[in-house]
Prior knowledge:
By secondary structure, the protein is of the alpha+beta class.
Amino acid sequence: MTTTLERPRGANIGRAVDRVDGPLKVTGAAQYAADAPVRQPLYAVLVQSTISRGRLRSIDERDARAVDGVVEVLTHRNAPRLKETGFNLRIPTLFPEPGLQPLQADEVHYWGQHVAAVVAASLEAAQRGAARLHIVYDEQGADVVLDARTRTHAEPVDSFFGSPLGSERGDVDAVLAAKPPLVDATYTTPDETHHAMEPSATVASWSGNALTVYDSTQWAKGLQSTLAHFFELDPADVHVISPFIGGGFGQKAWVWPHIVIAAMAAKAVGKSVKLVVDRSQFFTSNGYRAQTEQRVRLAAAADGTLTALVHDVLTKTGRVGEWQESAGAETGMMYAVPNLRVTHHAVKLDIATPTAMRAPGKTPGSFAIESALDELAHELRLDPLALRVRNHAAVDPTNGLPFSSKHLLECYRVGAERFGWDRRSGTPRSLRDGRELVGYGMAGACFPQNAGSAEVRARVEAGGRVAIECSMHDLGTGMYTIVAQVAADTLGIPLERVTVRLGDSTFPRASVTGGSMSTATIMPPLVDACEQLVRAAGGDLAAAAPGLEAIGSARNTGDDETHSFYCFGAQFCEVHYDEDLARVRVTRFTGVYDCGRILNPRTARSQMIGSVVMGLGMALMEETPRDPRSGAIAGNNFADYRVPVNADIPPLDVVFLDHPDLVFSPLGVRGAGEVGITGVAAAVANALFNASGRRVRDLPILAERLL
Ligand code: MOS
């Protein structure tokens, strides 16, 4: 049925409500996947390949099986058979490695591929068994790094997930033939690993032909249908439970092989099996952000008006998956440059499959573009902020469509004011604090907005409570809380009388919780369900009998034929630089974001703080190096893979403009998950240049690169 989707009125929407699931989290009562209430599960430990290409010649299991407590050793020889997937799988799934069925064949496609799982009565016994598995490989030559040789195998990539990657308008060649570009620079970003606080984990149990899986997933329904496919089950017989997730960042949107292996192991041993991906195994088990090399050329008039922009992206991907790091996909929309060309190339290597990591594509892409603009501003002796204002795109330059709601100029203005941008000197090395150099840098931020589809159930329960159910997830973002807020206001009852249940495949369907889409996806059907329930109760929920329920299925109203949908932002950074130690410290950060209407400023602010912290990690610390010969991940631990800690993070000043985007969605909401990381690394590099006169084009900005 249709609904009016009247704007709900009430005291909760827009208020900084504490997380409704906060008490469960701080008391430890929130059950994450590895906390599944399953009695005496067996433990599975993964064994990963130590070569990058070849075959398993032999696996000697005797020592492993001799370990007290070991129950089973699962390899390609004895693992349950899976139904073929192939690259043209038509089920709704995010299976990231269609070219590799887990534990089905003796081929090794990358270092760190799961080649066995040891199942035991205790975690320790399983670990001991895994260490005693003797594997002999027939190793073949492998290409594992982007270098002068493999670069020659780069192939053009025109589209990804149905969206074009390359783009062209005007005539860049004519502009560049007339006059060389003012900026011609190459920027590089390394492999980065997500490292959600909660490791990926699965607890699988079979009962006859029914499979129950507790899993840390961003998409219960996608995992349900994928497991049903692999094991040839009725999807209704696959129950996925995932009420709490300790961070996903894109990695947990996908059905990674270890999830399937946990289900295979449980099937093989006839008992529940718990499998937690070890931190050291994370680097090849759940995807990662793939390295990029991006050449940017900019031509401009003396006043800073861009006349040409060329963005050539080179990245890498694995052979058994399909992921592309789409670093140029959004380049064409941010600035009003008449002549533009974006190209993408990728080299296929014998490496694990990369995947979506917070603002995929846009995060490395914005490092290159926003750094290049800073270089252009310096070249032309212009203020970097004024340069961006001069090239502001009033309409989407890629298609001429109006933006549904764009307040980027206000982001610049408010940010500059709060940050004190007018105190910046355009001359590098002109500001000092004691023996340290001080610099200011800024960058623009943006991220596209889409919505998926979902249904929501609202049901009257005992005690005058109303339950809201949807299979969508709360990744730690605050989804439980904003759903409760909007439900309470729409139903006209206090927040305390709303129970929100999420992350269970038996609840109404929802598309993946990712892509900054979830708020816009869930709100229309939520309001729809609540309005229907109020009507069904004759306008008086207090008198309604328990069991009365309604399913909402209204969809987001944004029409991409008539408008372009984006979140925007402006990032401002101050660094202190100690030249003697080559030490860069970020000392202040201001981010101003245009993300539509903010349902809860507290949870939204946390999203932005997390995004900025992740961006600071990208700028200064994070990198996943690989041994160029073996393909082994070097430093696959938290000592070598450094992420920011509290001591690395300055006070973060995060502001939302809070302008409802009623063209995009009936409640005026957009998504806040990803825009906040875009531009952060460039703002740091730009601030470092302003401080020191050193331009760093290769991330992360490590001391050894500055000395
Ligand atoms: Mo995200 S990288 O779409 O969870």
